[in-house]
Amino acid sequence: MNSELKILKLKVSTNAKTLLDISFTINSSTALVGQSGSGKSLTLKAFLNMLPSNLKKNFDYKSDFELNSKNIGYVPQNPFTSLSPLTKISKQFFCPYDKQLELIKLIGLEKDSLEKYPMQLSGGQLQRLVIAIAISTNPKILLLDEPTTALDTTNKKLILNLLNKIKKQFSIKILFVTHDIMSVTDICEDIIILNDGLICENGKLDDIIDNPTNEYTKQLLASSFSNREFRC
Question: Contact 2/71 with Cβ under 8 angstroms?
């Protein structure tokens, strides 16, 4: 198992205002949870070095690997916009064909999927493919941006089961970004509650679900329970 990834400081600001100021540790699998505008997207963009040029970033971390494009895998919310519609799936991987076949088997698709175009596959199939592409370079950390939000209940379960399989089979850390606490209960060990660019609560996921101490966390839990569709 890899050692922990310590984000000693992640601060994003304009000339006049601090938008994000957090520090946290990823041991294995961590959920980053908050409503729209809480700072989740800024966190992801900071990791991916994709912040707008008008924002300043102060990013300091401690780890046994560099946070660069080689070591970071990224899975966006919408697979339709992350793949080239005019390019066969096999041409969108970053690994040899033999490894593509291994990954296709891992995600439960037939090998002829590699010779198809994105429009020939369903949303659930595409999201599994995007995950396979993201881990094809053997990254050290996998960033997940609401990967189940656009899917139906059946495909949500498939994606979460796949992510659990990947977590167990590969030595890879997971940062799962979502607004829905209940969507990460079966995959993440730790949780960070983000509100207005600050961490208002963090710790073991089960402990915080069972005994939240912050009012914002209680509101997120209430909203998640009322809108819950399933529990794996």
Answer: no
